[in-house]
């Protein structure tokens, strides 16, 4: 009987010994056809559910086995990428599996959900992580089918967890190339989610993150989504985002700005820790003000009450904080002080531009 738990444990403990493991993984993979298992059904989770049901019936320490079962199922496919011998032993065609996932959006969502198990183990050997990330990129960035009207509500909670795993991987992974590819995969997975749900997931990821750098990256993605919304409106293709969803999408963007510029508790953000997130939030707010002034979006940002709130609760306290830090450090010559001033300079520039825009809009606000 094929054991995904055994596959997971062997991969985590001996996966760094790739040549030695290939022969063993080939023998394990040879059991797949006789068990009626395929790479595609392992990746989409249908065969994993069947294996899980067997474990439940046998009451074989189910809770501790479950994560290994799902990890091992995904690793079965990754070993097929590592070595053609493993794929041949399993009777599987990796290229055909990729083609199927690239053309079937629902199957792709299911595979992304399963892939979160590959991103979580701390001790995953580098080469297995590399092949995992390459495979995830290949099925998300080379898609031949992307339906903006598809219903992904059933997968939303699990896609959110998968994207959470990707953000944590980006933060914690020491290898720069893997971090870069993981961020690209994050963008591709988000792009694969229909527009109305995309902002909901971005919003939840930003609220969930405790990394200022990751919050900054996600806010930049939110700004990019707003920009695309403006482009759709200017070209008359905004029908993919109904009015009620667009209103929900855009009104929630101001909440993201406030989350950073006026954190819970009402105190201004701290520097230099929150510098990246603050700069991204200010850039997003400036984009909102400019785009709304041009009639490209509607967030309610130009109403008098919203402008006053932003001015008095976000921008002025932040200006006081930045001016105070600059004054204290203006005569400093040590490297840390110079770094702090350099980090604050772009924040100061965008902050003053936002203040100017808000003061200008308040004159005409009703």
TrEMBL record:
GO CC annotation: cytoplasm
A GO molecular function held by the record: ubiquitin-protein transferase inhibitor activity
Domain of life where this protein originates: Eukaryota
Transmembrane domains' residue ranges: none
InterPro entries, sorted: Glomulin/ALF4, YAP-bd/ALF4/Glomulin
Protein name per its UniProtKB record: Aberrant root formation protein 4
